[in-house]
From TrEMBL, chains A, B:
<keyword id="KW-0285">Flavoprotein</keyword>
<dbReference type="InterPro" id="IPR016215">
    <property type="entry name" value="NTA_MOA"/>
</dbReference>
<dbReference type="GO" id="GO:0004497">
    <property type="term" value="F:monooxygenase activity"/>
</dbReference>
<feature type="binding site">
    <location>
        <position position="143"/>
    </location>
    <ligand>
        <name>FMN</name>
    </ligand>
</feature>
<protein>
    <submittedName>
        <fullName>Monooxygenase</fullName>
    </submittedName>
</protein>
<feature type="domain" description="Luciferase-like">
    <location>
        <begin position="23"/>
        <end position="385"/>
    </location>
</feature>
<feature type="binding site">
    <location>
        <position position="218"/>
    </location>
    <ligand>
        <name>FMN</name>
    </ligand>
</feature>
<feature type="binding site">
    <location>
        <position position="56"/>
    </location>
    <ligand>
        <name>FMN</name>
    </ligand>
</feature>
<dbReference type="GO" id="GO:0016705">
    <property type="term" value="F:oxidoreductase activity, acting on paired donors, with incorporation or reduction of molecular oxygen"/>
</dbReference>
<feature type="binding site">
    <location>
        <position position="217"/>
    </location>
    <ligand>
        <name>FMN</name>
    </ligand>
</feature>
<dbReference type="InterPro" id="IPR051260">
    <property type="entry name" value="Diverse_substr_monoxygenases"/>
</dbReference>
<dbReference type="Pfam" id="PF00296">
    <property type="entry name" value="Bac_luciferase"/>
</dbReference>
<keyword id="KW-0288">FMN</keyword>
<feature type="binding site">
    <location>
        <position position="147"/>
    </location>
    <ligand>
        <name>FMN</name>
    </ligand>
</feature>
<dbReference type="InterPro" id="IPR011251">
    <property type="entry name" value="Luciferase-like_dom"/>
</dbReference>
<keyword id="KW-0503">Monooxygenase</keyword>
<dbReference type="InterPro" id="IPR036661">
    <property type="entry name" value="Luciferase-like_sf"/>
</dbReference>
């Protein structure tokens, strides 16, 4: 079977460069205007992307004075995008730590019905410390505790999605039979964190379950992804590291008894595209010149558990001693390690590091021509570093339009990317099977004998 | 100022009669198909209704074998309806008992942005005992406890919606100033049930806050409505009872320091409409003949805390002794009292009672001509029994179409109902002011003096 390249559009602010919101190629619409998101999803659909993706954080950033830290709530946005598009997959982030599993299972099942089977859920455990304060917490749960809860959360929501047989609804008007109760069962979950009786109060969606997406790359995150994820968003600065991650994740998935090709690995790629390399470099410089070092310092501090970087001069080379031990950071650990790797390898100054992170927060950035971008995509794809990419245009919609108009046709000519949608669901685009209803746990013979 | 009549379309199953889903005038679409809801909202908008409304329950009914107990999740549906309509208000039910206040405040603020200011929230405390089992509960919270939580919940969500000044977002691309932090403040709520730091991570919506709707009619429910609700859905079997409720609620609102005209009272009205009275009666009989007494018994049992009605013969007149004491029912108390009132006044048999409840679950039902329906609406409106109606068509879309085509023009000719939308928000349709941001609690002088 030929491997197929997959492309996801990651919609973030007015583009992934920190200063994109101020750039002339950025959308004129407010970030609370649904037309902005609808327009981007339609442009990505015109480019035959597999999906669009919305990230999320459950607290306001403390740098909102100088950074565009507002966006609409992802689940409501997906429902609004479903009606504005017809084929593209729609992925929203939602938290296992701060949502009731019954509510989350139900809203995603509803989205799957509303979109005709185009929904994916990006599973997060919410690393942002400030989020805990919005949900009754005195303190943030530890990284390990969040993942332990998430593991049980997955059991609950999967059981809820499987609580209706695919053919349970009969809707037989003549006989007055609406559903076959033998196809609907309670889940009676009683665990360490959750007690949920079920069944869900909504029939199974067109995809059975939403496509499960994950982005945690710590050891715990990888093991979680290997067990549950069908697509993984990941951040790498080098092809070698991406290949290593790719091989590791596929091996972990196989060890869990899963088919490795059913866990797609999609590294982030944030391209600044110009007709010539010089033009691309010029746009990249424009963006860096528009960025605010104080916003960058605050974001870096947020990544490192609130560590204070305000005393560091902007133009002296950094050393690892300027950073706290990543083992002490109860946040998005894998991303902090990517940043430390950059510092160690390249001897950047703080200003240079902030420019690098301003590009796409630690994801791979490049400035180049459409040919160069397509070459990188082909290279990583063929080298076993990626099943496709999480495309993070530096400026939206500007760099997305260039990508669709100039990079996609190259990928199509090389036989790497679709020329039309073959299927109608996100599972079809990603080449993933529709999961059958998992059988109920077998009755315990010791109880049955009573 | 002339009083204006308000009309809301209550979308439920394939119509409010229990057997509507089987009737030939009902929609052919599945109840999980978003087009069904979009089509109804568009028909109501064509009829210049103020709003549509979606009820909700957080557990599957136990009579799903013979009753259409499935629907999409209301918040996701509203987002999808926003794009399919442009003027009509959109009201969804959500629970204060089983939702995190930060999530609820955020999703409704997001919906208000997405719809351009057309959203309302029907506040419920979730009386259904089975819901507790889906949210970790060993037992259902008592009626009093649910309302105590709801009271604090309202403080939290109101403070979150008011945590951004209307002009806090500057989005000044030239200077790089995104927001004015002086207009954004934490809420630091610490109460008996909730601790929420805030601010919300989303700017204030076009309406400031969603329109607040409520439907609890118990004493506690009325006091809650008098404090918070801007529109109240209510169920009455007689004009006299409706007038009494209307006067009581307006007086309670005044006692809370609110303008009585800013609490709209909208009784339920479930009309079966025919060109002649005989035709209307015929359709009503068809519907009753399609209904299933066993479904009716189960629903009645659900209303009375699980009380068993299976031993009662269908055709002997009921007495109040056939029912449990409503004071012992921890459910939707006011509705149980309406039912007992019917039994006492009219000496119904169980079969007759089930037919009456099959119509619209205790709401006012009538079978008549468009003239008769319009006359009742005018009578109740002018008599101070209603500010408008929660229209609950017996069959959807059949009876809605008849209402729009034949009842609305009569109301317009009598100068009672709009001939075009004057405003663009639900607040504008309902004649409600846009709430200003409530000032933060004053600093305590004893602390300031330290």
């Amino acid at each position: 079977m030929t491997r197929e390249l997959h492309l996801n559009l990651f919609i973030h602010a007015r583009g992934h460069h920190e200063a994109a919101w101020r750039h002339p190629a950025a959308s004129p619409l407010p970030l609370t205007d649904i037309r902005y998101y609808q327009d981007l999803a339609q442009r990505a659909e015109a480019g035959l992307f597999d999906s669009i993706f919305l990230a999320d954080q459950l607290a306001l950033g403390d740098d909102v004075a100088h950074a565009p830290r507002t966006w609409l709530e992802p689940i409501t946005v997906l429902a609004a995008l479903a009606g504005a598009t017809s084929r593209i997959g729609l992925i929203a982030t939602a938290s296992t730590t701060y949502t009731e599993p019954f509510n989350l299972a139900r809203q995603f099942a509803s989205l799957d019905h509303i979109s005709g089977g185009r929904v994916g859920w990006n599973i997060v455990t919410s690393w942002l410390a400030a989020a805990a304060g919005n949900y009754g917490g005195e303190r943030q749960l530890s990284h390990a505790e969040r993942y332990a809860r998430a593991e049980e959360f997955m059991q609950v929501v999967t059981a809820l999605w499987d609580s209706w047989a695919d053919d349970a609804v009969l809707d037989d008007r003549a006989s007055g039979t609406y559903a076959d109760p033998r196809g609907i069962r309670p889940i009676n979950h009683q665990g360490a964190y959750y007690r949920v009786a079920g069944p869900l109060n909504l029939p199974r969606g067109p995809q059975g379950r939403p496509v499960l997406v994950q982005a945690g790359s710590s050891d715990t995150g990888r093991r979680f992804a290997a067990r549950h994820a069908e697509a993984v968003f990941t951040a790498h600065q080098e092809k070698a590291a991406a290949r290593e991650f790719y091989a590791d994740l596929k091996a972990l998935a196989a060890a869990e008894g899963r088919a490795p090709e059913q866990v797609l690995v999609l590294p982030g790629l944030s391209p600044v595209i110009g007709s010539t390399e010089a033009e691309a470099q010029r746009i990249a410089r424009e963006l860096n010149d528009l960025s605010d070092p104080e916003v960058g310092r605050k974001r870096l501090s947020g990544r490192f558990g609130g560590h204070d970087f305000s005393h560091l001069p902007l133009d002296r080379p950094l050393s690892p001693e300027d950073f706290p031990d990543p083992g002490t950071v109860e946040a998005a650990r894998s991303r902090t390690e990517v940043i430390l790797g950059l510092v160690r390898r390249e001897g950047l100054t703080l200003r240079q590091l902030l420019h690098r992170l301003a590009g796409a927060r630690g994801h791979y950035t490049m400035a180049g021509t459409p040919e160069q971008v397509a070459a990188l995509i082909e290279d990583w794809f063929l080298a076993g570093a990626a099943d496709g990419f999480n495309v993070m245009p530096a400026v939206l919609p500007g760099m997305l339009d260039t990508f669709v108009a100039e990079v996609v046709p190259i990928l199509q000519r090389r036989g790497l990317f679709r020329r039309e949608y073959a299927g109608r669901t996100l599972r079809a685009h990603y080449g993933l099977p529709r999961p059958p209803v998992r059988p109920a746990p077998a009755a315990r013979p010791d109880l049955a004998a009573e």
